[in-house]
Specification:
This protein has 69 residues and is mainly alpha-helical. It has four helices and two strands. A two-stranded antiparallel ribbon has the order 1-2.
Length: 69
């Protein structure tokens, strides 16, 4: 599943993790593929499978709090 990098950055910032967000901004591609980029997502504390579940359940707005490890 492809996810816009800005959604990932928003998630990290919403968790008060500006340092990780800045690092992710420079390392993640504009479109994050949850399969191809699973290692990068894990590096930033995001479980790709949980992210997919949330997106499949009607979007990510306000529902991402439990995705960070």
């Amino acid at each position: 599943m492809n996810i816009d990098k800005n959604q990932i950055l928003e998630l990290l910032r919403s968790q008060g993790d500006e340092g990780r967000a800045q690092q992710a901004e420079s390392e993640l591609p504009d479109q994050v593929d949850t399969d191809r980029d699973a290692g990068l997502l894990s590096k930033f504390g995001i479980d790709p499978m949980e992210l997919i579940k949330q997106l499949g359940g009607g979007g990510i707005g306000g529902k991402l709090g439990g995705l960070l490890g």
